[in-house]
Amino acid sequence: MCLAANTPSGTGPQTVRVLHVSPSFYPAVAWGGPIHSTKAICDGLAKDPRWELSVLTTDAAGPSRRDRLADSAKTVPFPRGYNVHYARRIGGHSISVGLLWRLPLAMARADLVHLTGTYNFPTLPTLALARLLNKPVIWSPRGALQATSEWAEVPRARLKRGFERAAQVLRPRNCVLLVTSQREADTSTRRLGGIRVAVVPNSVEVPARGKSHAADRTRSQTRLMFLSRLHVKKGIEPLIAALRHLPDSFCLDVYGDGDPAYVQKLRQQAVDLGERVRFHGHVDGAAKTRAFLAADIFVLPSHSENFGIAIAEALAHAVPVITTDATPWQDLDRQGCGRCITLKTEDLAQTIALMSTADLAAMGRRGREWMLRDFCAESTDAALGRVYDTCIPRPRSERRDA
């Protein structure tokens, strides 16, 4: 969809040069859902001739310095019509001299900067340069501010507070915090006061067909599915514990990677459950689709989520969802496609058992229809374009005509 541009009468849309700065980028899928959603944003922008997009990122494919993307020393053309430069990561999650060296010229050429990430290497230099060069910034914190605000066990809390204060001082006046839910907006603005906020949910790709629960009615097992980064914040431990209070006919498929020590801890926690808990590691593409189509109920009992793209993906595949009110999915109950519970007051095992007796096929259909209606790429792309429009300075003559 091509958005209307603020250009003088009789002229075509003016091309706006957008620089997207991110600590990592597709295909670095080991970093989880933000990699897919950031690429989806860029793919959506590239569809519209109004935007001329380039991406500056690092070759980080995972937390370890050994985790690098192949062929990262050159700018890579994406089939969607934009270029991505992967600068070499030399330390940390995203420390890159190459990115810092390229940033000033890339930003000088841009009309608008979209910054992804919060507590990482590119954030402060990007905000400071944007202020110096008077460039408008769209800043996507990707749930980091929300997690720091909500999660009691967040690491390096004092250091992160100092980082936030520096970001507030360095950011340009024309800066919009782009969040994916009202919950993220509320918690993020408590961390960064006096900043404009725009809410645009992530889009989800709805496959040609979803889960057919009717085909599984004769199956004796109820297959629960967890897909996320394996981290204590994601609530995988309460889910494994809940399985002990469910009949042996319930099993759990766990998809995702994490810190090896924590993964080993989870495996040890589940050892007495035997084959009822299966760890599959990271999945993507066709393997992820097969995982969703094999599941009866998707469960993500997270302690903090700014969006939770895996929840949207499950619904798009017609899989009912159970999650928590620490995510922005309170409408699951109202839409009739799942449950959003409070872990401290509601029993997860009981919720799973009760949902397994419901009409999962009907719930799945309603969830899929919801994704098609409200979370399709066309809707979110248009909303994001409107946010971009509010940040682009217009000539004085156009402001008089507006």
Protein architecture, described:
The protein is α/β, with parallel strands linked by helices and 402 residues long. It is 39% helix and 17% strand. It has an eight-stranded mixed beta sheet, sandwiched between helices. Helix 3 runs parallel beside helix 5 and helix 4 packs across helix 6.
Question: What key phrases describe this protein's structure?
Answer:
alpha/beta, Rossmann fold, 2 domains, eight-stranded mixed β-sheet, six-stranded parallel β-sheet, 15 helices, disordered N terminus
The CATH superfamily label of the largest domain reads Glycogen Phosphorylase B
What is the molecular shape?
A: globular
Radius of gyration: 22 Å
Number of contiguous helices: 15
Number-wise, the strands total 14
N-to-C series of helices and strands: EHEEEHEHEHHEHEEHEHEHEHEHEHHHH
Unreliable residue stretches: 1-12, 396-402
Distance between the termini: 22 Å
Number of domains: 2
Structural class: alpha/beta
* Overall helicity: 25-40%
Work out the strand percent.
15-25%
What is the strand arrangement across the widest sheet? 3-4-2-1-5-6-7-8
The major pleated sheet works out as: 8 strands, mixed
Oligomer: single chain
Question: CATH topology of the largest domain, what is it called?
Answer: Rossmann fold
Mean pLDDT: 88
